[in-house]
Amino acid sequence: MATRSSMPANPNFLFLDKVATIQLQAVSDILWTEATGKRTPIGGLGTFWDDPESTTDTVDITDIL
Asked: Which domain of life is it from (predicted)?
């Protein structure tokens, strides 16, 4: 799925894009507040509070030492 940074808005529709983004943020804030008591995290638009945490492969520093 394309993100805002990878697919910029059409210059002819910048106002519509901005208004839609503000409305989506408002709806997201309502859902997050009802479920968690907090607003949508920064950069969290499009995520949900109960989404599974994405795990990344990490190296335990004690294994290296």
From this structure: Bacteria
Kindly state the average pLDDT of the residues 6-34: 91
Q: Whose CA is closest to 40, among 55, 24, 16?
A: 24
Ramachandran bin of 46, using left for φ above 0, alpha for ψ from -120 to 50, beta for the remaining angles:
left
Query: For the residues of the chain, what is the DSSP string, one character each?
Result: ---TTTSPPPGGGHHHHHHHHHHHHHHHHHHHHHHHSSPPPTT-TT--TTSPPPP-----HHHH-
In angstroms, the CA 34 to CA 28 distance is 10
Write the CB contacts of 27 (distance below 8 Å, at least 6 apart in sequence).
none
Q: Which contacts of 54-61 are long-range, i.e. CB under 8 A and separated by 24 or more positions? A: none
